[in-house]
Amino acid sequence: MRSITVRLAKTSHTLGGIMATLILSTAIMSPAVAADIPAIYNDSCAACHDSGALNAPKKGDKAAWSALKQKKGMPALVNAVKSGMIQMPAGGLCEQCQDDDYRQLIDYMSK
Ligand code: HEC
């Protein structure tokens, strides 16, 4: 009787582990699917663009961003993120981002 209880407990433990893994992978995948811009920003861009590390234009620096948008234009800015810059890794650490995500991320940083 006792060994059965133990085995049952082990089985449910494994199931719990699988469930936890499933929930975790859904949480990791969801930004790509739902294009949750603030979450993508926090995961991929904030490391540099929150503090202005390495001279990155800061989130919320409206003047800097509107100057960039006027001078280069949105398509050039999107391309700059995709191909990377001197200090910015190509794609800005967002592997699943599409052009439209980058446009929205840039708008999000401009505010
Ligand atoms: C490792 C730091 C880092 C990360 C991460 C990062 N950036 Fe940057 N970014 C920079 C720096 C630094 C610059 C200023 C240009 C330079 O010196 O490379 C910059 C410049 C830019 C520019 C201006 C490009 C231009 O043509 O002037 C845009 C747009 C941009 N980043 C978007 C993003 C987006 C969107 C993300 C997230 C998906 C991101 N960056 C992630 C460091 C980073």
UniProtKB/TrEMBL annotation:
GO molecular function: electron transfer activity; heme binding; iron ion binding
Signal peptide: 1-34
PROSITE patterns linked: CYTC
Superkingdom field: Bacteria
UniProtKB keywords: Electron transport, Heme, Iron, Metal-binding, Signal, Transport
Record bears the keyword Transcription: no
Gene3D superfamilies: Cytochrome c-like domain
Protein name, UniProt field: Cytochrome C
